[in-house]
């Protein structure tokens, strides 16, 4: 029985109990009369929610206002956890299609494609939710309320979470964000109207409202105080657009203070701006444990009761954390807040759940009929590849690209070439068959000899436990005489390797890195194949056994990496023993002499305690060159080199605990390509062979040397499950690149403003006066485009009048391709320190060779030329002259004309 059916049955049973006469009642009600109002589908969701709230105790109300809301059995209310993620695919809930990271999707500049992607994500989310319900699961990452998208402005390239955003521009962020919300919530891409007028598909959440973009290490402490002009011109527009145009149902506050108030308990942000000025009707939640920060770190109030009361009073209905459940009842009893205020907040929350169909029979909710077969379907896999192709930005090409498939030998070198993490970024699901860059190139060029060498670690000092090659299946047998390849794995539901195994199978290699943070009952793989349904996420153990068949004689460097404990035995002798807890994947090594032609009995034991889980069995064979030398030799022997480097989600991300040179707490302390990679790139270039640089990254990198010396540079971002195929498609010309940079790439010697300074002066293309390494909106193609005939239908207008802009774009090259036509507006006589120019329109169009098309944009000065006037404390449009710029990037303007705005 599904969740809604169970709830309905329990509630009807409860209604029968309520029909028993009560003191003061003249007579008993009939069962039909006793059906509680909150189950009456003829009533409004708000009325039903209010009725349900009225039946709860104070303590029950407070508990329902936290993310992990407990069941109330007497009311037939099941447990529900509001916490779910879908940044670029359903995340942390097992199998799901993994699309490119958000920053990569922004680089596509393709809103219609984003509509398709977000709709696919919501299909998978609904199908997975129904599957969880059928299994009786109501935990974290299993619900219908998703905490995406992140629409913070990526103001500084050092921020590790910038990868989660749509870049540095408010307009691009707004358009991509609205599209993402449409797809999640089940809205028509053309009209924005709900596809089902009664039930919402999912809830999307705009986060983190509103001035929040690092540093990660200070996020629980700092007070952001931008000028009001920066606030209204940069930090708020995307949130306003998602509320007014996107009708997003939820907003998440930030950890930090804004003008002295906690962003998750701010009268100015939540009551005055969000609700009063913008008319927001949905619900607000805190970021996780942000309510605790109000009293513990920000010291705004002295007690958790005061913090909880302040947050609810100022409009935060839902607490991710436990402050509300523990302290709101006490706050009510202390007179800090009235119970009626809790009733109002909780009614909003329960109405949202009802609007998702959680309290109604599934057959009445069209979204429950989405089949599970949509999850990781071939159609979604193809869509992931398409979005990855469109997200790739060609920064430079001196003619070496596209590569010929007749190339005899290709050297694929670098730390992200064969790393699944380079595909995923952060907040991701489990892809069924992730394609690394190395694999993608090999599949695309079957006639070429593709030689791989990792060369160096991602960053200096990381001692990367994934650097040593795995022991391949051809050197492993599960037992003597077996035709199978690999080792016999016995999986136990305890950490002692005891009892009967819950699962027994043959694993071709031991190379696993399991999903972080999933609380489900199944062990779920991160990138590689997982054990399936039999073993829990935490507190398990595995024993692999069989034979090791070394191909050559000599001393091998045997390596076992684990998070947490690992032991390795050869012929009964323990050669590696590290059985303790580890914070992350940690390598242990042993030098062992082995003889070719002999079979060694091998046993590997692994235990996992809590959180992250992973284990690898690797070796370096006798006579193997040091990795750096091996890479340089591979380049010498090749016709062309593809170097895959940059960053991964292992070094940039959310409030991380790992620090390396150039990195701190998930952020970066400089924007250079890591030194390990720079040195190897220089050595590869010195061989004289053409080197194509492919960057995996979530942010801008200062690759000045590469721009000056290498013939071609691609940015692949974190390209998702089919990223390797997409990169290969571009390298070999099956896809013509047309991605555009959603962030400015700065030069290595550029002195950036202080990271913790939220003033926009000197930041992003809108306020930066210097010369960028690569400009916002930049991206090359394998063909060329010409612009002509820029015209306005009127050159002089009032602030509220619309202007149509038209321009002709022609493909003047020999290949079909996409062009991203960009429109910028520049004040010619600025009255104050406002943006130098701003993106106010873009269209991605496809043109055949010789094809010409007229592209049109609409400008309304009251919307597109407004800027905050601090004296009036309101938006205003300065009358005067503006330049209309159309071109291929913010720095590649192909045509201009003048528009005059009158008073």
Automatic annotation (TrEMBL):
Keyword Hydrolase: yes
Domain PA14: 482-635
Annotated InterPro entries: BXL, Fn3-like, GH, Glyco_hydro_3_C, Glyco_hydro_3_C_sf, Glyco_hydro_3_N, Glyco_hydro_3_N_sf, Ig-like_fold
Molecular-function annotations in GO: alpha-L-arabinofuranosidase activity; beta-glucosidase activity; xylan 1,4-beta-xylosidase activity
Family annotation (SUPFAM superfamilies): (Trans)glycosidases (SSF51445), Anthrax protective antigen (SSF56988), Beta-D-glucan exohydrolase, C-terminal domain (SSF52279)
GO annotation, biological process: arabinan catabolic process; xylan catabolic process
Membrane-spanning intervals of the chain: none
Coiled-coil residues: none
Top-level division of the source organism's lineage: Bacteria
Signal peptide positions (record): 1-28
Keyword Signal: yes
Family membership noted in the UniProt record: Belongs to the glycosyl hydrolase 3 family.
Name of the protein in question: Beta-D-glucoside glucohydrolase
Lineage of producing organism: Bacteria, Pseudomonadati, Pseudomonadota, Gammaproteobacteria, Lysobacterales
């Amino acid at each position: 029985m599904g969740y809604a059916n169970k709830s309905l049955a329990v509630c009807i049973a409860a209604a029968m109990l309520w029909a028993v006469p009560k003191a003061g009642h003249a007579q008993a009600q009939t069962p039909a009369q006793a059906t509680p109002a909150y189950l009456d589908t003829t009533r409004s969701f708000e009325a039903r929610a209010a009725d349900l709230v009225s039946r709860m105790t104070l303590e029950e109300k407070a508990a329902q206002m936290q993310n992990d809301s407990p069941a109330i059995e007497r009311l037939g209310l099941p447990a529900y956890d509001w916490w779910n993620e879908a940044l670029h695919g359903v995340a942390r809930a097992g199998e799901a299609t993994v699309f490119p990271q958000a920053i990569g999707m922004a680089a596509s500049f393709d809103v219609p494609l984003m509509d398709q992607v977000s709709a696919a994500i919501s299909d998978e989310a609904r199908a997975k939710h129904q599957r969880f319900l059928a299994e009786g699961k109501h935990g974290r990452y299993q619900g219908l309320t998703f905490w995406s998208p992140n629409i913070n402005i990526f103001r500084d390239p050092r921020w590790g979470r910038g990868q989660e955003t749509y870049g540095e521009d408010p307009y691009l962020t707004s358009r991509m964000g609205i599209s993402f919300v449409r797809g999640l919530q089940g809205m028509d891409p053309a009209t924005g109207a709900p596809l089902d007028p009664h039930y919402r598909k999912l809830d999307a959440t705009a986060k983190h409202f509103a001035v929040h973009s690092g540093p990660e290490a200070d996020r629980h402490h700092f007070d952001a105080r931008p000028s009001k002009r920066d606030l209204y011109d940069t930090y708020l527009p995307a949130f306003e657009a998602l509320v007014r145009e996107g009708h997003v149902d939820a907003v998440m506050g930030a950890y930090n203070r804004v003008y002295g108030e906690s962003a998750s308990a701010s009268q100015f942000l939540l009551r005055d701006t969000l609700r009063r000025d913008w008319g927001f009707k949905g619900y607000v939640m805190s970021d996780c444990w942000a309510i605790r920060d109000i009293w513990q770190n920000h010291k705004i109030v002295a007690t958790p009761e005061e913090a909880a009361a302040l947050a609810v009073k100022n409009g935060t209905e839902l607490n991710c954390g436990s402050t509300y459940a523990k302290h709101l009842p006490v706050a009510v009893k202390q007179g800090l807040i009235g119970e009626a205020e809790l009733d109002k907040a909780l009614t909003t929350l329960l109405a949202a759940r009802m609007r998702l169909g959680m309290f109604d029979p599934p057959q009445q909710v069209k979204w429950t009929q989405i089949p599970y077969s949509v999850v990781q379907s071939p159609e979604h896999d193809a869509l992931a590849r398409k979005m990855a192709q469109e997200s790739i930005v060609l920064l430079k090409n001196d003619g070496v690209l596209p590569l010929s498939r007749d190339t005899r030998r290709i050297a694929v070198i670098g730390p992200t070439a064969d790393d699944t993490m380079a595909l995923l970024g952060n907040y991701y699901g489990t892809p069924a068959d992730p394609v690394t860059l190395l694999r993608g190139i090999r599949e695309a060029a079957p006639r070429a000899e593709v030689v791989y060498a990792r060369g160096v670690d991602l960053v200096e000092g990381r001692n990367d436990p994934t650097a040593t090659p795995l022991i391949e299946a051809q050197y492993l047998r599960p037992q003597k005489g077996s035709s199978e390849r690999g080792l016999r794995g016995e999986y136990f539901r305890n950490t002692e390797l005891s009892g009967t195994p819950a699962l027994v199978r043959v694993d071709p290699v031991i190379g696993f890195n399991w999903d972080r943070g999933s609380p489900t009952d199944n062990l779920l793989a991160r990138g590689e194949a997982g054990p399936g349904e039999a073993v829990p996420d935490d507190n398990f153990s595995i024993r692999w056994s069989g034979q090791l068949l070394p191909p050559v004689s000599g001393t091998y460097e045997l390596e076992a990496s684990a998070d947490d404990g690992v032991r390795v035995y050869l012929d009964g002798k323990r050669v590696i023993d590290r059985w303790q807890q580890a914070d992350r994947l940690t390598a242990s090594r042993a030098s062992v002499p082995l003889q070719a032609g002999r079979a060694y009995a091998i046993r590997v034991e692994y235990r996992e305690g809590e959180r992250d889980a992973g284990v690898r069995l690797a070796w370096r064979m006798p006579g193997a060159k040091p990795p750096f030398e091996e890479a340089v030799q591979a380049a010498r022997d090749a016709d062309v080199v593809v170097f895959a480097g940059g960053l991964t989600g292992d070094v940039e991300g959310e409030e991380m605990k790992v620090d390396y040179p150039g990195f701190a707490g998930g952020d970066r302390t400089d924007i250079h390509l890591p030194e390990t990679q720079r040195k190897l790139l220089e050595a590869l270039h010195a061989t004289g062979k053409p080197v194509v640089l492919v960057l995996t990254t979530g942010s801008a990198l200062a690759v000045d040397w590469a721009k000056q010396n290498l013939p071609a540079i691609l940015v692949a971002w974190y390209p998702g499950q089919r990223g390797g195929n997409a990169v290969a498609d571009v390298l070999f010309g099956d896809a013509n690149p047309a991605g555009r940079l959603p962030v400015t790439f700065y030069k290595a010697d550029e002195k950036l403003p202080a990271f913790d300074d939220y003033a926009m002066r000197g930041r992003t293309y809108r306020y930066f006066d210097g010369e960028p390494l690569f400009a916002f909106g930049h991206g090359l193609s394998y063909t060329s485009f010409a612009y002509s005939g820029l015209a306005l239908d009127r050159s002089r207008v009032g602030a509220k009048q619309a202007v149509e802009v038209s321009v002709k774009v022609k493909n003047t090259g020999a290949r079909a391709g996409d062009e991203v036509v960009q429109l910028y507006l520049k004040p010619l006589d600025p009255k104050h320190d406002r943006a130098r120019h701003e993106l106010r329109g873009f269209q991605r169009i496809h043109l055949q060779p010789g094809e010409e098309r007229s592209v049109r944009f609409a400008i309304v000065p009251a919307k597109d030329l407004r800027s905050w006037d601090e004296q009036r404390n309101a938006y205003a449009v300065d009358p005067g002259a503006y330049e209309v710029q159309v071109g291929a990037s913010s720095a590649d303007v192909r045509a201009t004309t003048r528009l005059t705005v009158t008073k």
